[in-house]
Amino acid sequence: MPLALTHPAGSAKQTTAVASAWPATAAAADAELAHLAELLADAGVTTVPAAGALTAPGLAAGPGDTTGIRVRTTSNPPHALYLIAAGRLTPHTTADSAFAHLRPLIEAAARPCDGCGAEAGEPCNPGCLPYPTTD
After folding, report:
1. How far apart are CA 39 and CA 98, in angstroms?
2. How many Å apart are CA 118 and CA 128, to the nearest integer?
């Protein structure tokens, strides 16, 4: 069964619907950043706020990550929350979306690492392999 388009691609209605998903202003993006800080605090993640940025130094993007997670906004469109983890930049339109992206990392930080033996809440040792091979 073919999908029916509600609005033709490029039409004024479609463009408006797509554009409205992103924060309209830098202030709206900053409000989403503040909301993300609240969500992370509720999850027990320590954050360090700064102008247009939020850092979670204890939340690793994976084994060997010693820089932590950073989230930034921009003063120029497109306004979004730009999640920076393990050298990758991922844009998010809302704090809830960014938090959903971070949830697996938060849950992993609550468990000890089988690869290097790091305790729950402690970062993995540099060069840790979470699933050691038997070779």
Report:
1. 10
2. 10
Instruction: From residue 62, give the alpha-carbon distance in Å to each of 18, 30, 74, 75.
Output: 32, 27, 26, 29
The answer to whether the beta carbons of residues 46 and 58 sit under 8 Å apart is: yes
pLDDT digits 0-9 by tens, 36-94: 999 999 998 889 999 899 998 878 776 666 677 899 998 788 888 898 887 788 999 99
| Segments of 38-107 assigned E as strands | 48-50, 53-56, 69-72, 81-85, 88-92
Helix (H, G, I), strand (E, B) or coil at 41: helix
Quote the tokens at residue 111.
Answer: 């468990």
Residue 135's identity, in one-letter code, is D
